What does this fold into?
Amino acid sequence: MKMKKTPTTISISNLKSSYTNLLEAHPPSSAKKDDSYFRQSRFESMIRPLRDSKEAICATEHSFSSSISPEKKVKRPVGNYTLRSKSEFGRSKKEIGSTVDKYIEMADLKVIDSMEIIDNDEEDPQCEIDKEETTVPNQKTGKKKKGYTALSEMVPLNLDEERLRFFERDCKYNPQFEYSNQGFKQQFDKPHTKYLKVAKMILNACISEYGTDENFFEKTGGRVITKEETETYFENYIQEHGLEGCLDIIFSEKTVAPTSVIHDPTGKSRVVISLPIAYRENTIMGVMHHEIGTHYIRKYNDRLQPWFKNRKKYDLKPYLIIEEGLAALNQTLQTTGGVRRPPYLFNAALHYYSCYMSSILGFEALFNDLEKYIKNASKRWKECVRVKRGIIDTSRSGGMYKDQVYLRGAIEILHKRKKLDFVQLHSGKINVKDLQRLTKMGVIKTEGLKLPTFIKDLEQYKAGMNHIAETNFIDTIK
It folds into this structure.
């Protein structure tokens, strides 16, 4: 007897990002080996409505743990996959189907029965950090509204091939990148220029003192640590902050950023660490201050605040610039005091400068220009890719300007550092102006908050901020 097919609704943006995250954390060669990943991941939460439905069943070529009976292992059948979508969503069935089918094929996944693909009515403000702006129609009104495409979709599909071609041609070539989705629109459509002068001052001061960026990192960062040491550092940091069970550590060769935190809507998050390891023993603590002590803890605390999932009621504005600026400062905090090195905001200044230069130079010209700040050709390639993401023909000027937020946010915070309540700034996903307003309203909850260890001695923390400001010429900016 043929089973009647009843479409199950699921968000296309969440579905696609789930497959992307799956592949990033578990390449196809290892996808079958770690069944626990599927039970715990964002992917699992997305497919649960399909897997538990009598009309639509999702399966892989190995067992899943049933969410209805957790103690019972169930072998799901493997069948054909079909996709249905509505034309008013502005995406053709072919466009969506080819993208999702590709992820399914790469991850050795097969879904049987059919799905009706829909878009979210409301954008999740918590995803602001990880996404770039696009436009999608509202289901009810038919009007277009702002949405966000995952940054992972801006990673070129042919990145490895174009890298090989670039170096085979002695770096005299402008890569021609291909993307799974070519309809995205970046959040920052113009480069920021206000702090270009100070960015150059920071970079030139650092290079003048150390000769090259390699000397700067090698002399001050110490030796490069191993994968096993990295895992131990992160596990100890997580335990020290009482976050056991909240974060998993995953290593990947398929990510652009050296470190990132991917948040699962169920509350479980993953720290994705790029391979090969580039962390150094004297600066690894700063990386953890950035990713866990800032990003994750602010997200953790945000869930305890009255504005959680109700940001419109409190008229909360975007927080990306302050979020990344604070993370950059907290990462640099480890080096304050001059024990190991002056606390230059080198990477923040480099990203700011690179983004601006990408707006006026093609890839090859940018690669040559950055040689004065990045000696290693492979690292320079990565920086160029980072700021040229989203461009197909990279001989053209233009790029992705999001990474200017690190220096922009750091400078804004340092300008106001003497008046800020830094404890409350870590109380949730808020910017400086909203912090000041919410403080006056008296609505910020402090009970039960997680605080990073580096902020428990406030006087030392503020002294560190003063040292960073002085080293990076912040008080000279008008």
Notes: Confidence is low (pLDDT under 50) at residues 1-16, 26-146.
